[in-house]
Design a protein that fits this description.
Length: about 375
Amino acid sequence: MAEICLSTKTWRSGAAWFNQQLVASLAEAGASVAYIAPLALPEDREPNHPNVERHIVPRELTDGPKLRRRIASLRRITTGLYLTLMQRRSTRTFIFSIPEPLLFTLPLLIFLRLSGARILLVVHDAKPHAWSLPSWLRSIEWLALWLLYRLATDLVCLTRATAEALTQHFSVRGQKLTIIPHGAFRLGPAAPLPGYGNLLAFGSIRRNKSIREVIEAVLKCRAAGRNLRLTIAGEVTDKAYWRECQSLVARRPEAFDLRLGFVPDEDVPNLLAKSDAVVLAYTDFASQSGVAVLAALAGLPVIATRSGGLDELFERGMAGETIACPIPDDIAAAFIRFYDRPIAEWSAHAKVAGVRIGSTLDWAAIAGQYLRLIRQPTVSAIPADA
């Protein structure tokens, strides 16, 4: 009989890695965990531990005809919901971390709460990066999120900024919020920085990462005689926005290395090793950046705004330059400040910072925080003012 059930739709990339690490750490800490999720990619990320009871959900399809992809998604959703419902027969505590669409998740959570289950929702983002419904239906989506946060017994936030956003935008009470940081992603020992003027924008390509402004900043630096080059690696989530970016790239194509699409895990170490720093010019951002955590642990400086969890990573000692405002001039200024300092100094600084951050984001300590929260007494019914 599993003490905890963790349910998620994720199976690849940083979000899935977070969930896989969390399950493995909880199991290592002595908890029995039922893990409901698609099979990990790569499969060696699977949390193989005697305390893990594995329930595999079909993966979604990322390529192929739209009808086939929709059918595959429906199979994933229905299988995951069924397995989670069946798990209620033996488990009382459920963790949801990036669950299925709200249309399906809300009825499931209502049933679980009415049955006396305890629900911990890991809030990666208080508000979505991109709303699913058109603007004239935005209030419906907002209401669904409001209900989601009320149905959860506890909301686990990865950053202070996320907790503040939940209070500000959704009036969530402070006693319902617990801040537990994002654990460390380790790829191996830090290598010296190459120092060839290569910067990296890594992860899904979205408007709130200010990719367009980063491209403009690179063009400004090159016009000023700085021989910078930018690698853009990740999946395009907003095609209209990417077309804006492409029009700028076309001005100096030799300054950009485009690697569009999902980046397999085995390619990530080489991508980082060829870069002097990772650029994260976030705006309107309250969550934690898994890319920043990954870069910091790999001994790579981060040139970033102090938005969301990035501010907390800088407070923990992450090496890098801060961007005052995600506009081309300020981003270019941060690039110039970065390269005005000897690359050997950055390399030494980032290596020490990576060790420090790794010790503060240790998964064993994080699992202990989750277990203390899970094992403290709580009410089982849905309170009127949840």
